[in-house]
Design brief:
- With 169 residues, the chain is an alpha/beta fold.
- 44% of the residues lie in helices and 20% in strands.
- The strands form 2 sheets. It has a 5-stranded mixed β-sheet with strand order 3-2-1-6-7.
- Helix 4 packs across helix 5.
- The two termini are 21 Å apart.
């Protein structure tokens, strides 16, 4: 069993753990140019690249995905950014559904509360992920998306263990 943790968005990441919660890897979401936009709107998710990435990582291994749930609003988000995020999340969900991978949406507050992390402190999340997964490439501040994907995957691992323990009692 492989557990996938997903921090969506164009600067997001996929993290991979095995059935024992051990680190298997972390990947940035593959993107491609989208035209004449600016900033993140200049890029969009590369669906073929993501499909290939997931297929290469799984090698016919059963898996489950935990995807950070998005609200799609906020004072700092413009309409273009919200549309781009929704498009990316929808593509991720569609690709995983097409590959028959079950997806569990996890609100950010839920997985962050599990780890005792404050709301939007990405550096604390990165520091915790470095402590838990020292072999992961998390040395740069901008690696916080990889760190969050790893923590989401670890949250999924804990949930699977709880579900298994409940089912066997």
């Amino acid at each position: 069993m492989i557990i996938i943790g997903i921090d969506p968005g164009l600067t997001g990441s996929f993290a991979w753990l095995d059935a024992s919660g051990a680190y298997l890897g972390v990947d940035d979401l593959p993107t491609m140019l989208a035209g004449k936009g600016t900033g993140v709107l200049k890029r969009r998710l590369n669906p073929a690249g993501l499909t290939q990435l997931v297929q290469d990582r799984l090698e016919d291994e059963p898996c489950v995905a935990y995807l950070e749930q998005q609200t799609g609003f906020g004072p700092h988000l413009g309409a273009g950014t919200v549309f781009s995020l929704g498009r990316t999340v929808g593509a991720i969900e569609g690709i995983l559904a097409g590959l028959l991978i079950p997806v569990h949406a996890v609100p950010p507050a839920v997985w962050k509360r599990h780890f005792g992390l404050p709301g939007k402190d990405k550096e604390r999340a990165r520091a915790l992920a470095i402590e838990l997964f020292p072999q992961a490439p998390l040395g740069r501040k901008k690696d916080h998306h990889k760190a969050e994907a790893l923590l989401i995957a670890l949250f999924g691992y804990v949930q699977l263990r709880k579900d298994h323990a409940t089912a066997t009692t």
